[in-house]
Amino acid sequence: MNPTTIQEIERAIGTLTPQEVQELYLWLDQHFPQPIDARIEADLAAGRLDRAIHRALDDDKNEHVRAALACNATPRRHRFLARILCAPTGNAGPRR
Predict the structure, then answer these.
(1) How far apart are CA 46 and CA 85, in angstroms?
(2) Per-residue pLDDT tens for 69-87?
(3) Alpha helix locations (H) across 1-96?
(4) 3-state class of 59 per DSSP?
(5) Which pTM value belongs to this model?
(6) What 3-state DSSP class applies to 81?
(7) Quick one: DSSP state of residue 88?
(8) Which of 21, 37, 40, 34 has its CA nearest to residue 94?
(9) How far apart are alpha carbons 27 and 79 in whole angstroms?
(10) Which of 8, 21, 79, 83, CA to CA, is 20 to 30 A from 73?
(11) Taking the mean position of all CA atoms in its chain, how far away is CA 4?
């Protein structure tokens, strides 16, 4: 990709509405997942994070935590966790 093309893409992204930027983030996540996302998904599927998730949920239930992650977070490293932690009950979370 030449510098002109990159600059054109940067200019185009700069004109996007907040909703369009959110859609771009989702598209990028689907088509170019970050290695850490794949590792977290594999760890979740294997149950390696269950104990930590249950501890965190218990701490939250007992009000031993304070909010550090908004459910509408947009930085890539937070969106994956927000999908897990902020999903409606029954759609995400630790395996039992």
Answers:
(1) 18
(2) 555 555 555 556 666 666 5
(3) 3-14, 18-31, 35-46, 50-61, 76-85
(4) helix
(5) 0.40
(6) helix
(7) P
(8) 40
(9) 13
(10) 8
(11) 31
